[in-house]
Every structure is written in C-alpha cells, then in structure tokens.
Amino acid sequence: MKIAPDINVTSLVDVTMVLLIVFIISAPFMRAGVKVDLPKAGARETQPSKAIVIAVDRANQIFINQEKVTMENLVTRVVQLHKSSPSLPILLEGDAAVAYGQIIKIMDAIRRAGIENVGLVLESETAKPSK
Description:
This protein is α/β, with parallel strands linked by helices.
C-alpha cells in the first residue's frame, strides 16, 4: 500500500483569514487621495459615498479624483466627468491653508459651466485629524 503525500494547508488558511479580516476592518479608516487638511465646522451633513471630488492642496494644486489638473482645463474635465455621470455630486475639498478666494473661484467656474450640484467638504470639529 502506497501512502499519498499531502500538504497540510490549515495554517495557511488560518493566516489568510486573519489577514483578510484585518484588511476588511482597516479599509474604511484608510482615506485615499490628496492630503488636504480640511477646515473644521460644528455641524456637517453626511458625505455621499460616490462623488466627483475636486481637491485643492496647500500648494494650490488642483486634483479631480486624484488626477492633477490646471485651472485652465478644470472646467472642461469636470464637465466631461459630469456628463458621463450626471447623478454624481461634485465635492470641493480645500485645504484650510488655501485662500478662500481660490475655492470660490473654482466653485464659480464650475457653476458658470452649468453644474449646480457643488458642495464643500468639511471636517467635524470633534473628529481627530487623519494622518
């Protein structure tokens, strides 16, 4: 009688399951994208899970869904994305160090293009800053 060789994969499955659980639990806490220190406000609405996100970092660089754009092609790119997904809102994330006038200029340019569903993203005053 010949004994068939086999590999015990029980410990491999255990480690894989533990890693899977760790990633599932930690995934919501990871925030991908451009690092922006959002201004804080006491009351805030819930942010939609899917949106076209325009971020302005400390260096006044503009990003649309993590893709760097210039002020000149901002409106063209936003209109393209809005036409492909008209139900998605447009959220504007401005770093707290960015001049208020820059944020208003971007918001005004988007609204002049005929897009009215534009909102600002704020961080709750009670929330801890994300690293």
